[in-house]
Amino acid sequence: MLETASRIEKSADDSMLLMRIGGDEFALITGLYDYEAVKDLSEKVMSKNGETINFDGEDLPLSLWCGITKIPESLRYNEFFTDMHEAISVSKQ
After folding, report:
1. Residues 16-51: b if buried by 16+ CB within 10 A, e if exposed
2. For the whole model, what pTM was predicted?
3. How far apart are CA 67 and CA 22, in angstroms?
4. Which of 5, 11, 13, 28 is most exposed, with minimal Cβ within 10 Å?
């Protein structure tokens, strides 16, 4: 988990917040409003796919999925969490 988070965080800048939201799922809160900038960031994160993580002496390939969701002005955690999971599910199809 720590190595995965570290690799995602390397794609972010100091104004972004990386959070573990459960299991092996993370959310990167960016403050970006421009879709193309968000898409570029997601591609930067996804470029880490296939890199290896050494675990117990074995090199394991990193596998990342990325979903994009917009946070509404009146944020409710359960709505954000649902939207985020839907975005990740769509990206896996």
Report:
1. eeeeeeeeeebbbebebeeeeebeebbeebeeeeee
2. 0.69
3. 15
4. 13
- Which CATH number fits the domain that encloses residue 51? 3.30.70.270
Element (H, E) at 82: helix 77-92
> Does residue 73 carry a pLDDT above 90?
no
CB 15, CB 44: distance < 8 Å: no
Question: pLDDT tens for residues 20-62?
Answer: 887 788 888 888 889 899 999 999 988 888 888 888 999 998 8
Domain that holds residue 65: 2-92
| Cβ-contact 52, 40 below 8 angstroms | no
Amino acid at 5: A
Handedness of CA 2, 8, 10, 12 (dihedral sign): negative
Q: How many domains does the chain have?
A: 1
C-beta separation of 28 from 45 below 8 A: yes
